Amino acid sequence: MDLEAIYANVERRDIERTTGPQTQSHGQDEGKDLKRRGSRCLVLITVGLGLICVLLLVFIILLHISITAERDLIKSYKNTVEEFNQTINSLHDNHTDLTQKNLELETRVASLSEGLKKEAIKRGWFFLSTKLSWSDSRQYCRDRGADLVIINTEEKQRVISSLVSERVWIGLSDREQEGNMKWVDNSPLKQGFWLKGEPNNHNNEDCIELNYNRRLPGWSTLNNWNDLPCFEKKRGICEK
């Protein structure tokens, strides 16, 4: 073997001794870096999956709350509809009952009215067909064999009050002497059925009416007389 070959082998061995450990150390460092990067990726993936799980859990909770609220709302709506239907049915039943009672009342009123008319005819009472002064009303009655009605009992007062539906003249006045009430047959007034505060002789009121207005203070079937000027025109009640 020549010297050049020996020098070449020696140089190669020196190079191998010098570079071998460095290459091995560098490879080990790269492996550690890869492991660290892998660990970081794994941590990031784990954290990401954890966040996704949390978000899914929140979504599921919110969805459950929303579904529960909608279910409660639907249930409340159904209950409201049922209550509304029950109210309508109750109102319908009440309307039916009221209609029936109204028909019964109308029948009773018609029967009572018919009975009162028969009673009036039986007692010889009739109403003027037109409105006249007190004197003309009396003359109307006298021309037909009657006179303005005399009311001298509570029973008669109640019946006549039930018959009238407007203000009417009766056969009572104090035209001859103020404050001295007399009936058309010249008999004195023994019992009066006056409205509260009447008679008051306001504006020379000498003739008496029966006032049917039930809204007047103190009005009743036994308290509805009022004095008026005799020239006012009203219907009257005649009595044979």
TrEMBL record:
Record bears the keyword Nucleotide-binding: no
Organism encoding this protein: Cyprinus carpio carpio
PANTHER family: C-TYPE LECTIN SUPERFAMILY MEMBER, CD209F ANTIGEN
GO terms, molecular function: carbohydrate binding
Annotated region (Disordered), positions in chain: 14-33
Name recorded for this polypeptide: Si:ch73-343l4.8
Signal sequence, renumbered to the chain: none
Source taxon at top rank: Eukaryota
Keywords linked to the UniProt accession: Coiled coil, Lectin, Membrane, Transmembrane, Transmembrane helix
